[in-house]
Specification:
Elements: E1 4-7, E2 10-12, E3 15-17, E4 22-23, E5 27-28, E6 33-35, E7 38-41, E8 46-49, H1 57-66, E9 74-76, H2 82-85, H3 88-94, E10 99-102, H4 104-114, E11 121-123, E12 129-131, E13 136-141, E14 151-155, E15 160-164, H5 181-196, H6 200-210, E16 217-220, H7 229-241, E17 245-252, H8 258-272, E18 276-281, H9 287-294, E19 297-307, E20 310-311, H10 313-325, E21 331-338, H11 344-349, E22 358-359, E23 363-366, H12 371-390
Parallel strand pairs: 8-9, 9-10, 10-11, 15-16, 17-18, 17-19, 19-21, 21-22, 21-23
Antiparallel strand pairs: 1-2, 2-7, 3-6, 4-5, 7-8, 12-13, 13-14, 14-15, 19-20
Bound molecules: MU-OXO-diiron.
The site of MU-OXO-diiron has 7 residues, from helix 2.
Amino acid sequence: MWQREIRPGVHWVGAIDWDRRLFDALIPLPDGTSYNSYLIRGSEKVALVDTVDPTMKQKLLENLNHLGIDSIDYVIANHAEPDHSGSIPDVLDRYPGSTILATPRCKGMLVDRLVIPEEKVETVDDGETVSLGDRTLEFIHVPWVHWPETMATYLREERVLFPCDFFGSHLATSDLFVADEGRVYEAAKRYYAEIMMPFRSNIERNLEKLKGYEIDIIACSHGPVYDRPDFILDAYRSWVFDDPRNIVVVPYVSMHGSTRRMVEHFVGALVERGITVQQFDLAATDVGKMAMSLVDAATVVVGTPTVLTGPHPAAAYATLLVNALKPKLRFVSIIGSYGWGGKTVETLAGMLSSLKVEVLEPVLCKGFPRDADFEALDRLAVTIAEKHRENGFA
Ligand code: FEO
């Protein structure tokens, strides 16, 4: 049972999920996560910002009990995804006088998803405020981070921003505030890559919008609280706005060693030309790590053998993921091997329709690679080095 004060009268009342290892049946959580919920007590009214995953609702209710909270006026639903809204029905059961505040789009989602009465949810416009007496909450609509209905809540007098998922990190830690910036940077970058990167243009607009606010603390709903907001704001600006870097990501899979041999040679050829390479064996890798590597990369080269006339399913999955995450890549290519033919290149290239990338000449070899194949890989490495140089990717 923990409830900790981040500002006078503003308490963290969430739950830490040390043991969770998968989110949405998709995203690996090597370091667990937290569901941060915050209680704000004003001179006249009390607000709860976001709740917790329903699996941990008891923690939230215990924390509120421990603080002696016998009524809550507003439950702010910044986001409808169940890890933040899923305990709202339990909060309403315990505090039946509460009103939920949400964006109009979020209201519909909450009613549909949680099966709660429509009249329990009041909508708030962008820029609208609610007074708690001596404290004011301002609602800032920040759509598409990473669902369409999202908003942030700003506590004006304390200059605290509660942006829910935005700027968050999947990190279970007993530190209330960021204590180890290196560790949090990595977790936040992974989170950005997996969850926010596909919405980069919306993130860009929302970052611009937040420039108008003086912020002393960013209290997200996953991971530790930022008491040095520039740390995460600068990181986001770099991930969103900076050009790609002189990096090639090589996700690959090999069945009998031919593709692996090609990858070894190719990676060596890239490194000799001053390119940073991040190589991932798809049979064993953590796809979250691969996603993170895409944030800054200029080029992806997928390595795959041909299976049943097409790419290996692991390579197809990685390619699908690259396409879905929409990184700021500029170039892609494919290398690999085949036994007697197939449509590996056409199939993989056809899976990249969301990306504005140039597809560089693929290198496929029959059987085990020989001198001519290694020379073709060298030529691909030279082309990539030239393209990166011409574009000024450093
Ligand atoms: Fe942490 Fe989009 O939920």
